[in-house]
Amino acid sequence: MSDPINPSTTFAKPGDHDALELGDQLTPRFDANGLITAIVTDAVDGAVLMLAHMNAAALAQTIETGIATYWSRSRGELWVKGATSGNLQRVQELRIDCDQDAVLLKVTVDGHGASCHRGFRSCFYRSIPIGGEAATATLVTREEPHFDPTAVYCTPHGHK
Fold first, then answer.
1. Domain assignments of the chain as residue spans, ordered by start
2. pTM
3. Between 145 and which of 25, 53, 106, 119 could a Cys-Cys bridge form, CB atoms 3.0 to 4.6 Å apart?
């Protein structure tokens, strides 16, 4: 698949099920938008830090540099996580699921140690109570932010 941001970035096409699921060649299955889901966890304690998406260029750059790079759907551009905040995600291990349509990045985080643009360690800083009425569920914040996004990004919502 060729990527419009970096046309030289190509991966081999997936083969049959056995080649895809048991073979040793990386043949990621990007969706109709050219993206693959990326789950990010802490390399030390396994905490889920965030979920993002990668296009072919982001996946290739991550493999080549060891620094987590994603595709920003909202901005329509490659995004090196932590380039602005200093919270770079250094990939310790990169895995792909059985049918090669999702990747798992086990990372250590520089800087404040936060992966969420709102200053929290994890983007999953709120929980949803189970057993109540779904339409009136109240989110519960489970941690304190590690930094003030306004001070880091110059905007209260964590994006420039």
1. 17-117
2. 0.86
3. 119
